[in-house]
Design goal:
mainly alpha, elongated, AP_beta
Length: 824
């Protein structure tokens, strides 16, 4: 009883000590934080160099915290690199994140962690293997490109899809690091493109698009498989796959076409005609492979990712533009409920689609109404979408909405609404007259922005048919007396000058009124007054008769006896005199130019060419006009300064046979891929070999835990040997392997003897003599196999360093297993 109590007391004391140690370590970790929440350098280094994994984790978390705050933590690089082979998964992840961030800056120190990262490629945890190849390719040091190739070669055949996906990303990074390995990387990429896992295909296609987008011939056998797994691929991978398949179809799949089918109708009522009425119906016929892609892409229009929706819309718009695409409207309108950034991108694409087909969004005009919370950019795009989608049947609704926006207090919204009304006026003459009546009422408004924009739009509408709007010009001339906005007055004067040749009774009176207050006008208004005077005088000197006799009589008379000058001459001289002494340099230069051109009647042709040249009919295009060259979903639609004009390939007229797209069965990675070559099961040749191989495999399975401990220290090529002089062997040999190589003959005999002993143990007493005879035959067969292996090793000498290294590891595992078996 006393002994049990003492044991319990000892257990409690031990637990108490452990609790106190844990509390002390927690206090130490907490005390290392300063008042400002930042780790001190000496504490961080102490944690990183500690023997305990928990303290290492605390140090790495401190570094991750400083990295997230934008602090420079390159001073800890040597201490972090030491933990690249840590046992804790969390510590390794943080170390790998640190290496990805600062590996390129400290390339020399980053090379110290290459061996540890190479060892992680053979780790049992697939996440560690994936992170290892990711970090290895993320260290952008050109000298380690061959090592990255070896890691990629091993990772593309890994059993885990996570590792293969990381290998696909690593291929792209290795290509950026050294583009001379393009053909080798393309071969590795072809293996991943044919992968059966949709988790790998998405990353492989992204690398394909970035590395070799023109090698579409690599997709022949994968086309139909991609169509079937399209819904399962990750969202951002779907964007790349849709773009790639769109380009593939335009090159290798026949284009769809409209086919007319004739149907016999009923006989006409007129018996005398006796003719049959035929009805024609058009059907859109497409290739089965194209139909497969369209059927697979249509569900993606309901994706939660807006980029996937835009990629699917681009696919339908590029492959079947002639078909009925009315189903594209609801998915795009649905995205208008997303945040403002997504709305801006979606509305930019909607505007381009509406330019191509204005009926596509006609049923959804209410979704383009402007809300008070909309930003100016979104409001502008919504108004543009309204004007592009309206037609004669819906223009009344759109004009009512735009007129409401024109009365807003937001100056930007007012200007955009009035300009949109001008674009709606281009639909028909009746709508133009309706818009003009409303705009004329806004001239007397107190809002300068509304008045100025209204007169600008009125000028556009009048120029469409000048002869039909003479009365409108007269109304504007009357409104000039009450107009106070300088922009409005300048616009009215310009319009009167344009009609100077048609309405001769309007322009001179307007010029007379403007001459009275010339000095009080704004500079822009003064320029238009001078231009109006020049236009009127050009018409005057053109129609003035040439009378040589009268000129000769005038020359004989004295200056005081000359007849009085014409009122037009006096008015023109008065305006030019006022402009001559104005403070504006531009105005004085314009007046000097006009006076020199109109100084004599002989310069009338030049004046007519300069001042009476016909103006082209104005056209108010949509702000998105000209963006049709960009693809739907491209960045060029959002920012025109981005040169994202990678066009789609043209439709091919000579497409190959559809049999090139027949699927090839993807072979699964063999279960024994990770085992040594000598341990893989081979074809059965005889009863004796069957017994021997079964026993050997069982014994190897028994000693496998011991061999695993040895493989944790598997040797990889060191930096000194990798960057040193080329040796005859591709990889150095460990101490245990050196001992095995020196005693090669002894190993062969031990192997044969061990196999003989194993067979004797398994066989019955009645078969001892037969087993001894079989063992002799097996020894002779083993010698033959050794000779064949020596001949094969000479042929394999030209292989890469990774193969030789793998063979040496396999031989060491075999030797360890045989030694244990011989010990038994």
């Amino acid at each position: 009883m006393a002994e049990s109590l003492s044991k319990i007391t000892a257990i409690f004391e031990t637990a108490k000590e452990l609790t106190m140690e844990a509390a002390a370590s927690a206090r130490t970790a907490t005390a290392s934080l300063g008042e400002d929440g930042v780790f001190r350098q000496r504490d961080v280094q102490r944690y990183l160099n500690s023997r305990h994994e928990k303290e290492k984790l605390v140090g790495m978390k401190a570094i991750a915290t400083m990295m997230s705050k934008g602090q420079d933590v390159t001073e800890y690089f040597p201490d972090v690199v030491k933990n690249s082979s840590a046992q804790t998964l969390e510590v390794r992840k943080l170390v790998y994140i640190y290496l990805l961030r600062y590996g390129q800056q400290e390339s020399d120190l980053a090379l110290l962690s290459i061996n540890a990262i190479q060892k992680s490629l053979g780790d049992q945890n697939p996440q560690i293997r994936a992170m290892a190849i990711k970090v290895l390719s993320g260290i952008k040091v050109p000298s380690i490109a061959p090592i990255i190739l070896l890691g990629i070669r091993k990772s593309i055949v890994d059993m885990s899809a996570i590792v293969r996906r990381a290998a696909a990303v690593a291929i792209g990074k290795c290509f950026e690091l050294d583009k001379s390995n393009l053909e080798t990387l393309v071969g590795y990429l072809a293996t991943l493109l044919a992968d059966k896992s949709f988790y790998v295909v998405g990353s492989a296609v992204q690398t394909f698009v970035n590395m070799c987008p023109d090698r579409l011939d690599m997709l022949h056998t994968n086309y139909r498989r991609y169509c079937n797994m399209l819904a399962d691929i990750e969202e951002w991978g779907q964007v790349c796959v849709l773009d790639m398949l769109t380009r593939y179809v335009r090159v290798y799949v026949p284009k769809g076409s409209m086919v007319k089918k004739q149907k016999d109708g009923f006989y006409s009522d007129d018996e005398e005609s006796g003719k049959e009425a035929e009805e024609q119906q058009e059907d859109f016929v497409i290739d089965p492979d194209l139909e497969l892609l369209l059927a697979a892409a249509k569900p993606l229009l309901q994706s939660r990712n807006s980029a996937v929706v835009l990629a699917a819309v681009n696919l339908f718009n590029a492959l079947v533009p002639e078909a009925d695409l009315s189903f594209l409207g609801p998915p795009l309108v649905r995205l208008l409920s997303r945040p403002s950034e997504i709305q801006f991108v979606v509305l930019s694409n909607i505007a381009v689609l509406a330019i191509q087909n204005n009926e596509l969004f006609a049923p959804y005009l209410k979704y383009f109404y402007v809300f008070p919370s909309d930003t100016p950019e979104i409001a502008k795009l919504k108004i543009e979408a309204l004007t592009l989608s309206c037609s004669e049947s819906t223009v009344s609704e759109v004009l009512s909405e735009l007129q409401y926006y024109a009365t807003s207090v937001d100056k930007f919204l007012v200007a955009e609404a009035v300009r949109a009304i001008g674009r709606c006026a281009q639909i028909s003459n009746e709508i133009a007259r309706r818009c003009l009546r409303w705009l004329l009422k806004q001239i007397h408004s107190t809002d300068h922005t509304l008045v100025g924009e209204s007169l600008t739009v009125i000028r556009y509408i009048i120029q469409l048919s000048p002869k039909d709007h003479i009365k409108t010009v007269a109304k504007l001339a009357v409104a000039l007396d009450s107009a106070t906005v300088s922009l409005a007055r300048a616009s009215i004067i310009w319009l009167v000058g344009e009609f100077a040749g048609i309405a001769r009774y309007i322009a001179p009176d307007v010029l007379r009124k403007c001459a009275k207050n010339f000095t009080d006008e704004d500079e822009s208004t003064k320029l238009q007054i001078v231009l109006l005077a020049a236009k009127l005088y050009s018409y005057y000197i053109e129609e003035k008769p040439v009378q040589e006799d009268q000129e000769q009589e005038d020359q004989q008379l004295e200056p005081t006896i000359r007849p009085p000058a014409d009122p037009m001459d006096l008015l023109f001289d008065y305006i030019m005199l006022l402009a001559r002494y104005d403070t504006s340099y531009d105005l004085r230069d314009r007046a000097r130019l006009y006076k020199s051109v109109l100084s004599s009647q002989s310069s009338a042709p030049i004046a007519k060419l300069l001042l009476q040249a016909p103006k082209p009919s104005p056209h108010a295009p949509s702000p998105s006009q000209g963006k049709e060259k960009f693809l739907i979903g491209s960045s060029g639609l959002v920012c025109a300064r981005i040169n994202d004009t990678r066009p789609l390939p043209p439709w091919s007229t000579d497409t190959p046979d559809a049999s090139i797209r027949d699927e090839v069965k993807v072979e699964e990675t063999p279960v024994f891929a990770s085992l040594p070559k000598k341990d893989k099961p081979k074809a059965k040749k005889g009863k004796k070999e069957i017994k021997k191989k079964k026993v050997v495999v069982e014994k190897i399975k028994q000693v496998k835990p011991k061999s695993v401990k040895k493989t944790e220290e598997d040797y990889h090529t060191t930096l000194d040997e990798f960057f040193g002089e080329p040796a005859e062997t591709s990889a150095p040999v460990m101490e245990e392997e050196v001992e095995d190589s020196e005693q090669e003959d002894e190993e062969d005999t031990e192997e044969n003897e061990s196999e003989v002993e194993i067979i004797v143990e398994v066989s019955d007493d009645s078969e001892e003599e037969e087993s001894e005879e079989d063992s002799e035959d097996e020894i002779s067969e083993g010698d033959d196999e050794n000779e064949e292996e020596e001949e094969g090793s000479e042929e394999e000498g030209s292989e890469s360093a990774s193969d030789d290294q793998g063979e040496t590891e396999e031989e060491s595992d075999d030797a360890a297993a045989r030694g244990l078996l011989s010990g038994q």
